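Sequence in, structure out.
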Amino acid sequence: MESEINRFLRIREITEEIVSPLETEDFVVQPIEDVSPPKWHLAHTTWFFENFILVKFLTNYQLFDDQFAYLFNSYYESQGDRILRNTRGSLSRPTTARIFEYRKHVDKAMKLLFEKQHLMHEELLTFFEIGLNHEQQHQELLITDIKYILGSNPLLPVYHKTKTATLTAPLELNWLGVEAGVYEIGHSGKDFSFDNELGRHKVYLTDFECMDRLVSNEEYLEFMQDGGYSNPALWLSEGWSWVEENKAEAPFYWYKKEDEWWNYTLHGAEKLNANAPVIHVNFYEAEAFARWKGMRLLTEFEWEIAARRYGQNENAQFQDTQLYQPKYNQGSNQFFGTAWEWTNSAYLPYPNYVQEAGALGEYNGKFMINQMVLRGGSCATPKDHFRISYRNFFHAHLQWQFTGIRLARNKK
C-alpha cells in the first residue's frame, strides 16, 4: 500500500508535470477572472499545506515568506485578507522560480512532519486528505486554465504534442432505462468524500431513460444549422440574454476557417471532428439543445442512479490518459471521465447536511447558491480523485471546463 507521504509527493509531482510544457511567460497570464495563472495555482496549493498543516503541527516551522498568505489565499475569509481574484495575473513577482522554491520548501517540511509524527492527529489527517484532493482539483483547473490561456493566444500554441485523439465514429445510440422507485443518493462508506456529498438520503424517481453516450459534435452542429442560436423559443430567459450579450453562435473554442468549423485543442488547432463528443458548452447551451431535441437533461439524482447501474470504469478517459480531447470509448457508456455532464439540478445542500465550522465550512457550503451541478468527471479529472457521488458545480454561463451533454426522456 502506498504510504501517505509517497502519495503526497506523487500528487505534487503530477502538478508540476502538468505545467512542464509551459514557457516562463505562460505562468503569469490571466485572460479572465475565472482563469487563474498557472503560477498562482502552484503557489495556492502549496499555501494550503503550509497554512492548514505545517503552521499548526510542525514545531518551529518557518514560513517561506510571510507575504504569501496574502497573495495565495483564495477565498478563505477566516484565514485573513487576500488579493482580489481578478488581479492574480498582476503577480509578475514573486517569480515563477521562487514559487518552485516555495513548493520544495513545503514538500521538505511535510516529509519532516511525517517522519516526526508517529501518531497522526485527527485534525492533521483531515486537512491532509482534503489538501491532496484540493491539489487534484487544481490539477484539473490547471489543465482547463492552460487551455484558455493558450487558446486565447492568436498563435494557438500547442501544449501537448505527443497525444492525439483517435477519429472514431460516435457509438450507435441506445437508451438506458431506470424504473420508478425510491433510491438512496450520496456518499456512503468511510473513504474520503467532500462534505457536499454527505447527508445520504432517499429520493423518489419516476421512470426515465438516458443516452448511453454523450452528444456528438455532429448532433450539436445540426442544432446550430437549424438556427439553434437564433431561436429564442429554445432558450431560458437568462440563456437568451447570454446569447444576445455574447453574440454566441457555437461552443467555446470553435471558429470558422474557410467555411469549415475548427476548434482549438491542447494538441493544437484542429478541423472539427464531427465524430467526437461536444464539449465546452455551458448549461444554457445544454438545456437549449435538449429542448430542441424534445428531451431534457438528467437531474443529478437520475444521473447518480444511472451511473451506478450502467457506468463502467474500464476504458474511462481520465487525466491519466493525457488525452485532453474527448473521444468515444466502446462499452464505457461515457458516465465516467470524458466530459462533465450538466444536470438540471441546482447546487443545494442535501438533507441533514451540516456545514463544517471554520475554514472547512468555506470549502463547499458557502457556494450553494446560483450554480448548477455537473457529474461524471472529465478527461482532465484525476482518476483516483473521482467518485460517483462527486458533485461539481459551476455558474450556468461558464464554458471553459470540459463540459458536455447527456440527454434524458421520460420512459415510453
